[in-house]
Amino acid sequence: MNIQSAISREIFAPRDEKLLVAIEVRRRMKRKGLSFLNASRKRDYLTYLCLSVTNSRPAQVLITKVKRYRGTRQLAKRSQWSVEQLRQVNGINPEKDTPEFDLVFDRTTDQWVASSAAEKCMFVQVLYHACQNYWEAKLAQANPASPGDQKIPGAPEIKKSHGAPSQTNFVNCQQKLMGDACSVNMVIYRCKIFLNRMKNSMTPNQGRPQREAVKASRSKSRSSPSPPAVRKMGNMMRRASQVLSERGERLMRADDKTSHLLHGAKQFAEAAQKLALKQI
Fold this sequence. Notes:
Elements: H1 3-12, E1 17-27, H2 35-40, E2 45-54, E3 61-69, E4 75-82, E5 86-90, E6 100-105, E7 109-114, H3 117-142, E8 169-171, H4 182-202, H5 208-222, H6 227-279
Parallel strand pairs: 5-8
Antiparallel strand pairs: 1-2, 1-7, 2-3, 3-4, 5-6, 6-7
Helix pairs in contact: 3-4, 4-6, 5-6
């Protein structure tokens, strides 16, 4: 089970909420007054920024911060804001994909760095369309259409003054995240996220053969076995060496496959972008 499914099952399903997207983030700027604490300890937890919508009507769009401490599978809900409290989403760089972004609420500003640029782009894209749908529904609910509001030809137009709510402002965000080709971009970002996570999961495993070889050599140097035990240990070392070589070959094949998938995803992204430009 991936982390998004676990968060949805443990945090949002019991609250009758639907999880739209969840990404791993970390703070870009240290909080003032806590620098001495941050310098003396490592980050012993992972932070996930989640976007959800309630199943009840009228639907509410919520941004939730969830934490998971290292070494455990337990998830904990920390903070939650509604879209009405979200004043601004700052994409930092409108020219290229970057992992940095800011969320400005009524009383606080959070500066985040996503684990990858693709995760940040996917989060901003889903958040933009969720906000758009929410504010459109809010406006339609505040100004219901009635038969008496039909416009009569030749009659002067009467403008109604309504207290329009302050909507979320998206600044420094790439146009492709808010354009018509959102579904194509979503597929591209999900492919990039999958490949990035697979590559990160493979990296820690590459050091295991070396650690096992060092451990075997240390155990051999500490003991002084008899000749039959030496032959037995030699056979074990040969089998271990064979296993390590086979594992190395599998890792190399997996690395080649990952490179091939990355190249294919890049070609697919370029083709999708050209197709989106033709449709516009």
